[in-house]
Amino acid sequence: MINAGKQTISELASSSYFSSSDSFAMIRGGHIDSTVLGAMEVSESGDIANWMIPGKMIKGMGGAMDLVAGVKKIVVLMEHVSKDGSLKFIPSCSLPLTGRDVVDMIITDLCVFERQSPAAPFSLIELADGVSADEVASKTTARFLR
């Protein structure tokens, strides 16, 4: 068996699985309520960039674009800043977009942001232990409510 990241995996006694075509049928048919995705960038308006960096070799687009177009709630799970210190929650994405105005919640190693509707700004709703709102603000260029 191979997972979505093209890695060989084994199954547990409680495992269940289905074909890729069934998975896309569920996504495209509107049968998935929420998804959790990683991201390289998220904009203050809820845009997500998570599928490629221009000039880098990629294996393929994967199903992220189907997921952001076909689910009701999108949660992004990511480090707050990249390995080189670049900010990831920013005013507008510089990388190619996976989806526009689709992210509902962002969970990082520092905090949790949420927005109540697509037109609403993100609100800072939770801080990690030992992290202040000022630290989050210093590592975030996107506008958000405290």
Name the features.
146 residues; alpha/beta; Glutaconate Coenzyme A-transferase; five-stranded mixed sheet; three-stranded mixed sheet; 3 helices; 15% helix
Summarize the structure.
The protein has 146 residues and is α/β, with parallel strands linked by helices. It has helices spanning 20-28, 64-70, 133-138; strands at residues 34-37, 41-43, 48-49, 73-77, 89-90, 105-107, 111-114, 123-127.
Note the overall shape. Answer: globular
Mean pLDDT: 89
Q: Cα-atom Rg, whole angstroms?
A: 16 Å
So, CATH architecture? 3-Layer(aba) Sandwich
The separation of the N and C termini measures 45 Å
User: Which class best fits the helix and strand makeup?
Assistant: alpha/beta
Q: Which strand order do you get reading across the main beta sheet? A: 1-4-6-7-8
Name the poorly predicted regions: none
Tell me the strand percentage band. Answer: 15-25%
Corresponding CATH superfamily:
Glutaconate Coenzyme A-transferase
Number of helices: 3
Beta-strand segment tally: 8
CATH fold-level name:
Glutaconate Coenzyme A-transferase
Number of domains: 1
CATH class: Alpha Beta
Helix content: 10-25%
> What is the N-to-C succession of helices and strands?
HEEEHEEEEEH
Main beta-sheet strand count, sense and barrel state: 5 strands, mixed
